[in-house]
Amino acid sequence: MELPGGFSLASLGAYMSKTATFRWLGALPNDVVLQGLVIGSSLMLGSFIAKRFVLRLPPERFHRLMEAMLLIAGLTMLAAALQ
Question: Of 46, 18, 47, 44, which is closest to residue 32 (Cα–Cα)?
């Protein structure tokens, strides 16, 4: 029997051990850890807030938005690669 969130908990433990190892080796400065915490917290909060809006979208509109975002992301990567 697998516990809900068991995989997430295992991943969190792995990342925490990696973070501790890199900190112990001096390869992970405090400002980078702080930036990671701020960015991670912002992503989690944004996902939590956006879920309410996404669930209200009709499926076809959601698919069009995803296609538009993928197109923009692809064009952005191509533009960056050509510079």
Answer: 18
